[in-house]
């Protein structure tokens, strides 16, 4: 068979090591998995019923490529009610195939070959290959010495090293994998630097409804003219498999991002859009019981792990702990494999999340309290033995 010439940018990418690791350790008998970022709650009943009604009404055809007009209106109303942002549903809102679809369409639309994208780490790694596939160049900014918060000074320093190609900044908050988030003052500081250098900001706020203390502040409110906000119903309404995300931003940017989305998916799935319409229109507070449960789990885990000899971030949102490993165990891949095989607990190596991540592991507490109790008992025994 002859060798087929493939896109070299694709060939250079490796499959997700997070998914690969999760699949590999899943074969271990009796393992407690605290790996993937998947809510362990069912989609609310009223949302499922709306999807069923749409199917029974034969809503099984193409929708407008930017999404159902009534869903875009509901999304604009939701974002304004929750975060004080104002978007025209006709020109400034796009329905995407999950937040992932929004990331892909946005970076593809805004990047020219050689453009530089600044990515604070540790961070969920998906932004990296998508930037590279679009021909962009990634510059990592390690935030591990600053409480996992990107400072304006570090952003400015990174831009000064790439002044001619600086194009965009990626933010994700509350952050996967650390659970930290940004307040208004911190966002205003970053916005000042971004404006000074003409940077666009891709602000992935998919965990916004899982903010524990205070109210989530959107970058779309702080710097609306240069920010593309990504959100959706995956985490807020336990709808990861429905694949409905939202992109919101300046009309001229949304127009271009919408082209990429149309070329790649035509439109989001019709019945899933009707489900999302119900979620955003009549389930604005559906995340509240989940948020309370996640907070309780966090408040159990942090002291339990500390008692076992493991310190972690104190998350203000999402459902992750980023746990610092003792010096004798700082190889996060080695630790994760050993913990899985010897103790029957699966966590994600921190090295998967970029510079500043090694020496940590990510624990997802989107799991039952029973599993968390079992996991902490096993982790404590493992730490005593090592």
UniProtKB/TrEMBL annotation:
It comes from the Bacteria. Its EC number is 2.6.1.-. Pfam families: Aminotran_1_2 (PF00155). InterPro entries: Aminotransferase_I/II_large, AspAT/PAT-like, NHTrfase_class1_PyrdxlP-BS, PyrdxlP-dep_Trfase, PyrdxlP-dep_Trfase_major, PyrdxlP-dep_Trfase_small. Keywords: Aminotransferase, Pyridoxal phosphate, Transferase. Signal peptide: none annotated. Coiled coil: none annotated. Belongs to the class-I pyridoxal-phosphate-dependent aminotransferase family. This is Aminotransferase. It comes from Bifidobacterium actinocoloniiforme DSM 22766.
């Amino acid at each position: 068979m002859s060798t087929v010439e493939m896109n070299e940018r694709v060939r250079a990418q490796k499959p997700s090591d997070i998914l690969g690791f999760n699949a590999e350790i899943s074969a271990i008998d009796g393992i407690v998995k605290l790996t993937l970022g998947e809510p362990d709650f069912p989609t609310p009943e009223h949302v499922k019923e709306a999807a069923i009604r749409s199917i029974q009404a034969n809503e099984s055809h193409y929708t407008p490529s930017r999404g159902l007009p009534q869903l875009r209106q509901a999304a604009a109303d939701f974002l304004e009610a929750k975060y004080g942002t104002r978007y025209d549903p006709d020109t400034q809102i796009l329905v995407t195939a999950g937040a992932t679809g929004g990331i892909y369409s946005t970076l593809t639309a805004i990047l020219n070959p050689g453009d530089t994208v600044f990515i604070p780490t540790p961070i969920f790694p998906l932004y990296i290959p998508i930037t590279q596939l679009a021909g962009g160049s990634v510059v990592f900014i390690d935030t591990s010495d600053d409480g996992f918060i990107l400072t304006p000074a570090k952003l400015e320093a990174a831009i000064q090293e790439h002044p001619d190609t600086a194009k965009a900044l990626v933010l994700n908050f509350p952050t996967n994998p650390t659970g930290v988030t940004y307040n208004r003052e911190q966002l205003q500081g970053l916005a000042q630097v971004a404006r000074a250098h003409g940077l666009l900001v891709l602000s992935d706020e998919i965990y916004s409804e899982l903010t524990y203390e205070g109210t989530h502040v959107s970058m779309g409110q702080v710097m609306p003219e240069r920010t593309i906000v990504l959100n959706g119903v995956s985490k807020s309404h336990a709808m990861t498999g429905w694949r409905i995300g939202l992109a919101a931003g300046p009309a001229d940017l949304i127009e271009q991002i919408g082209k990429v989305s149309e070329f790649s998916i035509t439109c989001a799935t019709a019945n899933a859009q009707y489900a999302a319409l119900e979620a955003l229109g009549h389930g604005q507070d559906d995340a509240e019981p989940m948020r309370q449960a996640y907070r309780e789990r966090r408040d159990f885990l942090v002291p339990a792990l500390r008692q076992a000899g493991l310190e972690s971030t104190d998350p203000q949102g999402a459902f992750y702990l980023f746990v610092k490993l003792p010096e004798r165990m700082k190889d996060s891949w080695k630790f994760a494999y050993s913990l899985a095989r010897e103790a029957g607990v699966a966590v994600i190596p921190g090295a998967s999340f970029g510079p500043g991540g090694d020496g940590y592991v990510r624990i997802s507490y989107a799991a039952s309290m029973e599993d968390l109790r079992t996991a902490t008992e096993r982790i404590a025994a493992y730490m005593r033995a090592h």
